[in-house]
Amino acid sequence: MSAPTRVLGTPDSSDGAAEREVLERLEELLELPATERETALRNMNLPESRRQRLRELLLGHERSGDFLEPGEGISLPLAPGLPQPGERVGIYRIERPINAGGMGVVYLAWRDDGLYRQRVAIKLIQPAQLALDPVRRQGLLTSFEEERAILAQLQHPNIVHILDGGRTELGVPYLVMEFVDGVDLMRYCREQQLDVNARLELFCQVCEAVQEAHRHLIVHRDLKPGNVLVDTNGNPRLLDFGIAKLVDPLHESGTASDTQTTVLGAMTPAYASPEQIRRLPITTRSDIYSLGVILYQLLSGKRPYDTEQMTPAQVERMVCDTEPPTLSRALQDGDATPGYAQPLRRLSQDLDRIVAKALHKEPERRYGSAQELADDLRRHLAGRPVLAQPDTWRYRASKFLSRHRVASVLVGSALMLILAASGLALYQGYQARIAAQATAEINDFLLEVLGQSNVDHTGVEVSLGDVLESAAQQLDSRFGERPAIAAGVRHAIGASLLSLNRLEAAERQILTGLAEAQSVFGDAHPTAWKLADALALLRFEQGHYQEAAARLEQVVTQMQQAGQQHLPFYVTASSNLGYIHIMQGQYAAARPYVEQALAAIEQHGVSVPEDEYANILSNHAQVLHDLGELELADAGYTHARELLRRLHPEGSRDIAILLNNRAMLALDLGRGEEALELMRESVEMRKRSFRGDHPVVLFGLVNLTQMAVSQQRLELARSVAQEAVAMAGRLHPQASEDKAKAWMVLAMVQLNQGEREAARQSRDAAEQALQGISEVTAALREDLDALSATLRNQP
């Protein structure tokens, strides 16, 4: 006896609320790497019944395999209101679910109206999603109808066909598509042991399917191997247009809001283009990038980037700012899938170039269409010249620098210093001929190091720090017997490594360079002073504050005794010493050093870059503020900001820091709303200047939390504090003052919201974050002690 027919309905209000929360939580969990989901689930404040329901849904998601792959024996848990096996939706009888997620579910079904029998796939929205707020409900329904309309336009042998569609009596929409009896693209190539040419022929058919969508001005936006099934006849079929979007036929671009729309799923970061990751307007060339990722994986057995364990911020930095290994290098480095790429050990250089062109960071430098990509592959298959050519060295160098905006300025200065290091010969009284020879040797050395980092030779783009460390490793062999030159070069390299937070590598160069300079020139010499200054800043970053201050005090004193206050480096050393005192909250100690740096510039005509002058003005204003001279501090901040805004109209890290400090001043002047707005502006500018996790961003989040607490904007404070704690954990797995500050401000928020026990736990986490740190700054120690005292005094 057949099961009774049931009309698809929605759960009652109590079940619906519970299931809706479960589905919303499921979407959050699915955004995390699989290894982190159980921990996140345990930390959710949920009844145990809902927690168990989530475990069932996650298990079903993990076992379901790729979209529309049957997966015999799989049993997926279904939400209330969804059809069960044996029941009907329209004229179709459900056999079993084959894929389910937080937004929707897909069934294997049969046409069952007595006319003829046909296997189909039916996709429905989860009923609980339709109980959301009216705006989101309408968005889901509209997007579902858009997918139906998109599939109806596409009649191509390599695109899955839509057969039917409609709504249940209660208004739940469904799509009926042909069922593809096959396996995903990667699995098919593995099982069939296809050679390179066969894989390329298969991939060209996929490109033609994508081209058909693009011809209708449709961007798929979620191309990946799991959305390409190869049927039993060896024909690839493109499916799942759930987040596809129509593009402007004139501008071939979407909008930022378009890219944020999701339907029954979302883009897959491992295959998404840089513009998708950054939520920028996209074009059909975004699909070209995704095709490039698939082609890379098809030929090497692994993706260009391993994003499995990464946070969203780390994924963004990786995809948008890092060049992947070339296809050839990926093969040389071994296989992600054992046995998969064994026959593909050697590939034509043409394939390297084709893949690189498809994967270009800049959309306009990719193939103009999927058909162009397929045509170039067919040129390769026919033994004809391909259109893809490598970028020029000049272009790669310009993009390398632009991707490292902050560090490039420092390293650009470093390279200038390296080149200028040969000027030490003149300073020492060398003859002009010897000085010229030293300059030529350093030039040759630099060109050799830069040449070794050329991606054409290495197969992968070498990072800025790697280039510097490579140069450092070769110094002994090139200049080991000439410490006068080596010391200057080591200073430049060590200072740049320090700016990149490569502290151990920086320490090796700075200490060696200082020893070389002292052996040749003694302590009281410009080269020794600069290396001592770099060592002081290194010690400060390592948490050795007293040693840092003592070293710089010695440098400043020696320069004064030698009458060298006219040198620009005297300004730098004095300013750095003031900065070290400021960062420890020692404003009275900082004042004389900051003011003597300003006097050298303003009264004695010492010339320094405008950026440096503006930052010294800002530091001086901060000192005046803490010492109670508020009006003078306000004037100093105003002057500094005018200089920096003229130099950096788009904003910069230095302006962000100034805004932070001026916000603190506004608070003390009784202008609370202005203070909060300045602090928010500072944090946003930090995030623009340093994409993703960065200590400078974390510092701003901590300060914004404290500001929001002072204004009793507790919900804002809580949100920002939680963001700070999460970022601190990612940045500092071990002990760290920054991590302690993040936990401390979260405790402050919890205390203000009456959550005393939670505040005690966060305070304890802050103390734990300081375990093993030998020197804790006095200001942080005082703040933590005050927090502990408040907790003790409260019932």
Topology:
Layout: H1 13-30, H2 37-43, H3 48-63, E1 88-89, E2 92-100, E3 104-111, E4 119-125, H4 134-153, E5 162-167, E6 173-178, E7 182-184, H5 185-192, H6 196-215, E8 218-219, E9 228-231, E10 236-238, E11 245-246, H7 274-277, H8 284-300, H9 312-321, H10 327-332, H11 349-358, H12 370-381, H13 393-403, H14 405-420, H15 423-427, H16 432-452, H17 455-458, H18 464-479, H19 483-499, H20 503-521, H21 526-541, H22 545-561, H23 568-583, H24 587-602, H25 610-626, H26 630-647, H27 653-668, H28 672-689, H29 695-710, H30 714-731, H31 737-752, H32 756-768, H33 778-793
Antiparallel strand pairs: 1-2, 2-3, 3-4, 4-6, 5-6, 7-9, 8-11, 9-10
Helix pairs in contact: 1-3, 6-8, 6-12, 8-11, 11-12, 14-16, 14-19, 16-18, 18-19, 19-20, 19-21, 20-21, 21-22, 21-23, 22-23, 23-24, 23-25, 24-25, 25-26, 25-27, 26-27, 27-28, 27-29, 28-29, 29-30, 29-31, 30-31, 31-32, 31-33, 32-33
What is this structure, in a nutshell?
This protein has 795 residues and is an alpha+beta fold.
What does this structure look like?
The protein has about 800 residues and is of the alpha+beta class. The protein folds into 4 domains: about 170 residues, Phosphorylase Kinase, domain 1 (2-Layer Sandwich); about 200 residues, Transferase(Phosphotransferase), domain 1; about 120 residues, no CATH class; about 100 residues, Serine Threonine Protein Phosphatase 5, Tetratricopeptide repeat, CATH 1.25.40. Helix content is about 60%, strand content about 5%. The strands form 3 sheets. Strands 1-2-3-4-6-5 form a 6-stranded antiparallel sheet. A 3-stranded antiparallel sheet has the order 7-9-10. It has a two-stranded antiparallel sheet with strand order 8-11. A hairpin with a 5-residue loop joins β5 and β6. α14 packs antiparallel against α19 and α20 packs antiparallel against α21. The longest helix is centred in the middle third of the chain and has 21 residues. It is globular, with a radius of gyration of 31 Å. The relative contact order is 0.04.
